[in-house]
Design goal:
The complex is a heterodimer of chains A (419) and B (308). Chain A is an alpha/beta fold. Chain A contains 13 helices and 15 strands. Chain A folds into two domains: 234 residues, Rossmann fold (3-Layer(aba) Sandwich); 148 residues, Rossmann fold (3-Layer(aba) Sandwich). Helix content of chain B is 71%, strand content 2%. Classes of the chains: A alpha/beta (419), B mainly alpha (308). At the A-B interface, α3, β7, α8, α9 and α10 of A face α1, α5, α9, α10 and α11 of B. Chain B: InterPro entries: ABC_transp_permease, ABC_UrtB_bac, BCAA_transport_permease.
């Protein structure tokens, strides 16, 4: 075994601290583990790393490099889910062992490590990737070697692979409900679209613009800044001048911190809602770096907030804190990453097999009643039906949920008329 | 272009954009001064400049927590102390790096590029191991928050004013050190002719170490000040490094005055274009103009005339 392989040992300190968190597991999750043990040859006909009592999966995220900021939470959530599943007896009576690889924020490295996981380690599933660029890099590998990837990030859509399950929202789910809410509740008529300059913000704003103009409202400005840009005074001046009702923001990474700090310094009170700031890119994780006092009053449109008041989520937050400390925060993507191992477990048990093709066939229609975000179901197109919520940022760095859609929103990765 | 706006709005645009340009100018100068000293005076291409800045930012983060925990009554003034600590920490690390690494490479200037790039990766991973991969939030004292409302439209950010004052102070201090003090004379002598400087009794090794430490220390102060306007994370330093080199190279590497002139040109061009074009296009055009001028004038805006 190579040095970089980090297979979870039975009694590692991490595992012990995770066990403490298990006390908080929702009782409903504990019911489904009485499965008849089948021998390894029956549940695995394709040579995956499955033994009589273990099954190997991969965790593939950046733990070094610039994306480590964002991907750390996903790794933590996936490990927590795996340990909780193991504590309940595992999947088809087999304990999950994970092999962790580091994509190092470098897309070719992601592809290389994905190949290593599928070819050398013969893992039954991979939980990983964060940026669209890394997903696009590993996609041919997963399709060539027939692997299964559980991808946690909200993203721009326009993709659907039989080898990927998308546990985050695609763009229309996240954006349209948010725009409808500001129009209806806040009477917004004019919008300023602002984003970092790469595929996700540009596609998101394309969808947003189309929707805004279809409803007869106006886009008064649309603008992109290079990734990592730190000077936003000019655009802040433009916003002041154009006086839009809503500024719709998809700025990412370190630029976020700079943008909100400079907004605050420029004398704009975000709580006054003049203009109202609606973001699709700032989760609780980002607020840690921005500082709650610099951002309180803005709204975010996504499917999960740490403060969601349901019992599943309370159990999840308690378990997460017991495992990683009281100061930890949980953002939208972290929760979506946590769903990955659970969705895979449900699909494997429905299929009665670890074989990738059988798991894929079983995947559409998989339901989770225990998800922290509430009930979710996998669509034929491998995305999740989910609710969209609007949260308002508070000075303590948490969001207060002010709105949630009544129904689950259907995932629509190829929206008609939006391209 | 202006037809949509009233004359009072136009006035406000110019006031606000003028201030945005000035504030960008002072940020550029603050970023570039440390590098101008190291790159310009010593010829060392310090790719780890951004990481020295982030060391200053993390010192500010630590200082704010120490003050919040042990000296809550003095919390309002922690930022001043933080900048001093940032200068000392970054300067000390700079001296250490010069002693352990840089002084072995003076005869191989291109190798300093690789060595300091490696150093920047090492520092990034150290920050990640010590402070965690996530960005940390640095809380500002109240007096640095907010803005001075000048009129209905125009608000002047207080931290922008603070950065300007800081830049003026540091630029004046560097000017005094380099051009009015005995030590500055030694530095300039070493730059112009190392063997002769050694022959007249200047301890060139010591001068090198102090120069490098000074450059790094100024980077630390800049990083500390930038916690007001930017992010503090293991890789945040990378956000500044390109602009910093751009300013120093465009200005003419060995001239501090050139650095200031170049920071002014680039900041004004960029903030004006940002207003009339989109953000990405403004950056592209700025880079194009700089590349064009450097093709015509490879030595940069200002060049030191010395006999080689």
């Amino acid at each position: 075994m190579r040095k970089s392989d980090r297979v979870a040992k039975k009694h590692s300190p991490m595992r012990r601290s995770l066990m403490k968190g298990l006390m908080a597991l929702p009782a409903a999750a504990l019911l489904s583990s009485s499965i008849q043990l089948a021998n390894a040859a029956e549940v695995n006909t394709t040579g995956l790393a499955v033994t009589e009592d273990t099954v190997k999966v991969g965790v593939l995220h950046s733990i070094t490099g610039t994306m480590a900021i964002s991907e750390t939470g996903s790794v933590q959530a996936e490990k927590l889910a795996i340990d909780q599943i193991n504590a309940m007896g595992g999947v088809l009576g087999r304990k999950i062992e994970y092999v962790q690889e580091d994509g190092a924020s470098d897309w070719p490295t992601f592809a290389e490590k994905a190949k290593k996981l599928l070819v050398n380690d013969k893992v039954a599933a991979v939980f990983g990737c964060w940026t669209s660029a890394s997903r696009k890099a590993v996609l041919p590998v997963f399709e060539q070697y027939n692997g299964m990837l559980y991808y946690p990030t909200f993203y721009e859509g326009l993709e659907q692979s039989p080898n990927v399950v998308y546990t985050g929202q695609e763009a229309t789910q996240q954006i349209l409900a948010g725009l409808d809410w500001v129009t209806k509740e806040k009477g917004a008529k004019s919008f300023y679209l602002l984003g970092s300059d790469y595929i996700w913000p540009r596609t998101s704003n394309k969808i947003a613009r189309k929707h805004i103009e279809m409803k007869g409202m106006k886009v008064v400005g649309e603008e992109y800044y290079p990734l990592g840009h730190t000077q936003f005074n000019s655009v802040i001046n433009k916003i002041k001048l154009k006086k839009p009702d809503v500024v719709f923001i998809s700025v990412v990474g370190g630029s976020n911190v700079a943008f909100y700090k400079q907004l605050k310094a420029a004398g704009i009170e975000m709580g006054k809602e003049k203009p109202l700031f609606l973001t699709i890119s700032v989760t609780e994780d980002e607020i840690l770096g921005i500082g709650g006092e610099n951002i309180d009053g803005i709204y975010a449109s996504m499917k999960y907030f740490q403060s969601l008041p349901n019992d599943n989520n309370k159990g999840f937050v308690d378990a997460f804190k017991a495992a990683y400390g009281d100061d930890i925060v949980i953002g939208d993507v972290t929760q979506a990453a946590y769903l990955g191992p659970w969705l895979w477990k449900a699909a494997v048990e429905k299929a009665g097999s670890f074989d990738i093709d059988k798991v894929r066939a079983a995947t559409p229609g998989i339901e989770l009643n225990t998800a922290p975000e509430g009930y979710v179901r996998v669509h034929e197109n491998h995305h999740l039906w989910s609710r969209t919520r609007i949260g308002q940022a508070q000075p303590d760095g948490q969001y207060k949920v002010v709105f949630e859609t009544d129904d689950l929103i259907e995932p629509d990765p190829f929206p008609a008329g939006y391209q | 272009m202006f037809a949509d706006y009233t004359s009072s709005e136009l006035l406000a645009i110019f006031a606000m954009q003028g201030f945005a340009g000035l504030s960008l100018f002072s940020i550029f100068v603050l970023m570039a001064l440390g590098l101008a000293i190291i790159f310009g005076q010593m010829g060392v291409i310090n790719m780890a400049h951004g990481e020295f800045m982030i060391l200053g930012a993390y010192m500010t983060y630590i200082t704010s927590h120490i003050f919040a925990d042990y000296l809550p009554s003095l919390y309002g003034s922690y930022f001043i102390f933080a900048m001093v600590f940032a200068f000392i920490a970054a300067g000390a690390l700079g001296a250490l790096v010069e002693w352990a690494l840089i002084r072995r490479l003076y005869h191989r200037p291109l190798d300093t590029l690789l060595a300091t790039w490696g150093l920047s990766l090492i520092l990034q991973q150290c920050y990640r191991s010590i402070f965690g991969a996530r960005e940390v939030g640095v809380t500002l004292p109240d007096w640095l928050m907010g803005s001075v409302p000048m009129s209905d439209m125009v608000d002047i950010p207080i931290n922008g004013l603070f950065v300007m004052a800081l830049t003026l102070t540091i630029a004046a201090a560097v000017y005094y050190l380099m051009y009015r003090s005995n030590w500055g004379g030694q530095v300039r002598a070493v730059v112009q002719n190392r063997p002769m400087a050694g022959a007249v009794g200047i301890n060139t090794e010591k001068v090198d170490r102090m120069t490098f430490a000074l450059g790094c220390g100024i980077a630390g102060v800049a990083g500390s000040a930038f916690t007001m306007i930017g992010s503090t994370g293991p890789t945040s330093g990378q956000l500044y490094i390109v602009d910093t080199f751009l300013v120093v190279v465009f200005g003419g590497a060995s001239s501090l005055l050139g650095t200031i002139a170049s920071a002014f040109t680039i900041s004004q061009a960029q903030s004006t274009m940002e207003f009339f074009l989109s953000g990405s296009m403004a950056k592209v055009l700025t880079l194009l103009v700089v590349v064009g001028i450097l093709m015509l004038r490879p030595q940069g805006l200002f060049a030191l005339k010395i006999r080689r």
